């Protein structure tokens, strides 16, 4: 299996755990990404429980009469937690805009949030999860703008018309299995070039942050965009170890304790960062699973999300604002 397919399948597993997508859609995505031979073993992973066969009834000469039980009243829908960090669209201290930028023969869609004023401001490229450019990621961009950063979130499905134009949203994670990682990195390279043309951007203080799928893209981008000053990768698959020497930015790796599929790559990555004298820090947040920062997902943990946000702000203040 290629690295790209493996990466995408791992993210679909996490999506199934963190967002509880429909099981049929999850399995269909597995088959599309890797073929039927791969889907079976993956069902043994957390969040993937194989359907049990329906037992065959044994006939009797005199079947017992049955009664239809009353239909239970529907349970009220569980209310979603909303992060206290959330910044609504229209906040008076934040300016937002939908933007486009060129990358060779493609037009890349993005969402930009910046503090009020002329700047120049430190700036973050933002890579979304494998759900596409969602309202949650736009909110994250506004959260950073509230802290004094320009946040530029790019849509990795721009060439497909944009995340919000995909008719069947449950198929978005599957679509990434057919897109080379190099394309995502190229789009962020184009995003970096775009930022250099913006008068409100401090050209010497540009960093990157990504979540889940976007954490993996961030690790890969930081090996290619040598001008990045700092980067934060939330529970993202490690880059190719042979590419670690190319990293120039100081990097913060955010990990969840109960996220074994991502954590298996953490120690080899850290060993390579140490071997090549790279500036980095890593932290494992206790008692939480993959995607614990996303307050729209079922793995959201407010206490640890706030802790990770505080640590991220301290890291960026030290390595990007200063």
**Structural class by SSE content:** alpha/beta
Percent in helix: 25-40%
Assembly form of the protein = single chain
> How far is the first residue's CA from the last residue's CA?
43 Å
Adjacency order of strands in the biggest sheet: 1-2-4-3-5-6-7-8
The whole-angstrom Rg is: 22 Å
Mean pLDDT: 84
Q: The biggest beta sheet, please?
A: 8 strands, mixed
> Low-confidence spans: pLDDT under 50, at least 5 residues?
15-23, 29-79
Percent in strands: 15-25%
Summed up, the helix count is 10
Number of strands: 8
List the helices and strands in order: HHHEEEHEHHEHEEHHEH
Shape verdict: globular
Features of the shown structure:
322 residues; alpha/beta; 8-stranded mixed β-sheet; 34% helix; globular
